[in-house]
Hints:
- By secondary structure, the protein is an alpha/beta fold.
- It has a single domain, classed as 3-Layer(aba) Sandwich (Rossmann fold), CATH 3.40.50.
- The chain has 11 helices and 12 strands.
- An 8-stranded mixed sheet has the order 6-7-8-3-9-10-12-11, with helices on both faces.
- Helix 4 crosses helix 6 and helix 6 packs parallel to helix 7.
- The radius of gyration is 20 Å and the shape is globular.
- Adenosine-5'-triphosphate binds next to strand 2 and helix 1.
- It comes from Tepiditoga spiralis.
- Pfam families: ABC_tran, oligo_HPY.
- InterPro entries: AAA+_ATPase, ABC_transporter-like_ATP-bd, ABC_transporter-like_CS, Oligopep_ABC_C, P-loop_NTPase.
- This is Oligopeptide ABC transporter ATP-binding protein.
Amino acid sequence: MNEVILEVKNLCKDFTLGVFSKEVKSAVKNVSFEVKKGEIISLIGESGSGKTTIGRMILKLLKPSKGKIIFKDKDITEIKSKKEKKDYYLKVQGIFQDPFSSFNSLYKVDRIFNMIFNSYFPHEEKKDGKIKKALNDVGLKPESVLNKYPHQLSGGQLQRLLIARALLMNVDLLIADELISMLDASTRIGVLNLLGKLSKENGMSVIFITHDLSLGYYLSDTTLIMYKGKLVEKGSTEKIYKNPVHPYTKMLLNSIPDIGFKWKKEEKFLPEKIEIEVNNFYKKNINKDTELEVEKNHKVIVNGR
Ligand SMILES: Nc1ncnc2c1ncn2[C@@H]1O[C@H](COP(=O)(O)OP(=O)(O)OP(=O)(O)O)[C@@H](O)[C@H]1O
């Protein structure tokens, strides 16, 4: 699992707010990381920390303001032609929080799946069998979904259909943004296990975007912690959860509620308190390099520039 398939280098995204306004929102600030073949990476952070924006840039749905996204030795920000885009989407697919927006509401599921073959594998002879197998693999009964329109299915069923689509296309990288948010607790674990299985058996890499630390811990080999557009800590999931160094990561891990344990007021996750602690941490480390190695495969970003 050492082949790097995606490299994100100094990625930035600024949004200009309003049509005439000059106000700029820096949603992603100088983010760098790598994804290896078959690796599951969790991108974790509070709401608004820039996770989805990173996912959308990797999926070429947003143009970076600065930085590079290199997929298999090619900078995808330079991809312009339709053919190159199509080839890219054969390898990299996304699943978003709102699965309803990912389907054409006018087409039934069988037509949507047939279109994948028409578009990408027109000579495939075992199309029907492959579609059925992919649906079975994600725990859906083909006969109960194939003849339905997207609005006749639940959010959870649609998310599974999106995984089945990625399966059929045999993608190298799946960006799963709050993938299981629409699933109930009992089906969540099944979908998570499915992702784990796909990454192990097919070598599919996954960027799993979430604000749920427990899910990230369960699923991922590597963790990236985002705070206000910056990547603040990255490395082995095991190491970060055992030995968090950045004050934001520490507070995030402290904020996981334990069943049967009532929070005391001072233990609450207070944004102002975090901001003060993070600024103090950056001040203390102002003369150090931006990235410090805490231990092998565990780095912390120690200055706020
Ligand atoms: N198209 C846009 N125009 C202006 N600002 C945007 C746009 N998209 C995102 N933002 C802002 O960029 C910041 C990062 O948003 P993003 O959706 O990436 O966060 P997130 O970490 O994925 O949050 P959540 O977990 O709530 O989805 C937020 O402040 C958001 O308001």
